[in-house]
Amino acid sequence: MKSEINEKIYSKVFSESNERYHIEQKEKLERIVNLFEPCDRVLDVGCGDGWFGKRIIEDFGADVHGVDISKDALKKAELSGLKVKKQDLDGNKLSYPNNYFDAVLCGDILEHLINTEFFLKELRRVLKKNGFLILSVPNIATYYNRLLLLAGKFPIGIESASELVFPPIKAKGLYNTGHVRAYTKETLTKLIVYHGFRIEEVKGSPMVAHNDHILDKYKKYVRISNSLEKFFARFPTLASVIIVKARKV
């Protein structure tokens, strides 16, 4: 039953926000690609439509496998060249053997899972010795959330209820993120190290809006917001997104 509920939620989010997600995540994709290294077999966990995995195939010629809970997303991922499997990642064992992958990519998944400890153990299990993990999460301590909390407002990127969204700033097109966990740079890196990885790099990344879908009267504010995002992305503790590269030890 839980798996069916998760599939319904994430299939809806995928269908309604996929284009916007690609726009917002473009700079994060470039940072992840820059952290990658040549390898043979890669697992893209929560692969969505295969947007990230396709880039890894194109740039590195890797054999990319993808798992996701959304059937609609997996159909597109398969068309992008990924070898796909449908799976609910929360509390379920990955259907791959031990020491199978040279690299695991996990983009914005950890914050959606209740059973984070089991999930990280599974990522380590399917990685080969000295294999690397690239993982990204939204940063709950980003610069704007610090300001919102000071003003007594609820932070962006976490919900207080599963069916309602109470945004600090009303905007068209808001949707429930499905986030059940929240991370800072410190809590994320400590969690990864605890589960048998060595941290190699930590980077920040911005969430950049695209002007094509913004009304003219708001474009000035979008430009200001994008400039702030790019500035604070230099500092992982303040950036909107945290990206970690870690090595299995």
Descriptive notes:
With 249 residues, the chain is α/β, with parallel strands linked by helices. It has one domain (2-248): Vaccinia Virus protein VP39 (Rossmann fold). The chain contains seven helices and seven strands, in the order H-E-H-E-H-E-E-H-E-H-H-E-H-E. It has helices spanning 2-35, 51-60, 71-79, 116-126, 143-150, 185-194, 216-232, and strands at 41-45, 63-68, 83-86, 101-107, 127-138, 197-205, 241-248. It has a seven-stranded mixed beta sheet with strand order 3-2-1-4-5-7-6, with helices on both faces. The longest helix is centred in the first third of the chain and has 34 residues, at 2-35. It is globular and about 50 Å long. It starts with a helix and ends with a strand. The mean pLDDT is 87.
Provide key terms for this protein.
single chain, 249 residues, alpha/beta, Rossmann fold, 7-stranded mixed sheet, 7 strands, 40% helix
Oligomer: single chain
Number of helices: 7
Q: What percentage of amino acids are in beta strands?
A: 15-25%
Q: Indicate the percent of residues in helices.
A: 25-40%
Spans where pLDDT lies below 50 across 5 or more residues: none
Count of discrete structural domains? 1
What is the annotated CATH architecture?
3-Layer(aba) Sandwich
The secondary-structure class comes to: alpha/beta
The CATH class assignment is: Alpha Beta
CA gyration radius, whole angstroms: 18 Å
- What's the average pLDDT? 87
What is the H-and-E element order? HEHEHEEHEHHEHE
As for the CATH topology, it is Rossmann fold
